[in-house]
dGTPase (Clostridium grantii DSM 8605), 343 residues
Amino acid sequence: MDSIREKIEKNELAILNRDASLSANSLGREIVEKKDDIRTVYMVDRDRIIHSKAFRRLKHKTQVYIKTWGDHYRTRLTHTLEVAQIAKTIGKGIGLNEDLIEAIALGHDIGHVPFAHNGEEVLNKLNINGFKHNENSIRVLTKIEKNGEGLNLTKEVLNGILYHSGFSKSDGKSFTLEGQIVKYSDKIAYVNHDIDDSIRAKILNMDQIPKNLIDSLGYTHGKRVDTLVKDCIYTTLNNLSIGRKEVTLSENVEETLGDLRSFMFRKVYKGEILAIERNKAKFVLEQVINYFNKNPNKMPEFYQKIVEKEGLQVGVTDYIAGMSDDYCLWVFNEIYVPKFVIY
């Protein structure tokens, strides 16, 4: 008698697109495990990511460095959930493996550092070998979680997370269509919700966005996402029908999304309005890093052991990269800000 997992795997074979990644055909894990009776390998990966400490910390990591005193600004966690929703919609429309998509989407930003890309810039500058959040996501999932054991995820999930970042053709792509979907969904999500948050924060208004871009994609957040999602589904289905195994947008829509993304980099991400706050965040992070470089014995024992095995820079980077914005500020205050009462 088939287990529930085996029934799910048979349903995948019967229902999914022929180019989908079937759970039963996974390339497997680094450490071989007994298969679950209920869940497929990708369902197991999804659950491991959701229950990880690194995933929980995303709720206190900034999406874009805008002061988020209001309840309705995105965090790195809500961004992750929006990416997962968009990616699963695209995947269902094409007929791909939603469990694999969800696992990749939920884990894609797990290696992000405090203060969003500002923090990543600091770590990249101070590390001899550089620093990229997508590569750090793999390190967190394979070397840091579970007290250094890692989550032992499937190769398909790790590959999709590694290649989720970047917009140009030279950035590389996942070997699964599911991973490629997450890469596009990440861009669709953050470009559009960052417009929404920037308008809410009064650092952007709709009149400033180039009219040709809005005319093409839509005048509301929902309409733009709808346009991009449907274009991705129909374009990819057409690709597959002619033997091209690749997730893409249509040429015009992809160019428009790229232009909108470039506009957001100029106006918001690298714009003058947030420059002061970006520099504050970088200053805080630099001081915290400098302190632990000089005082590694003040880090938790887990990271001190990494210093012993892999060197000071690796251990300090792992500790700092795992911090939430709130915790990093708390550490800075503990180290550098005088107490009101001194005994």
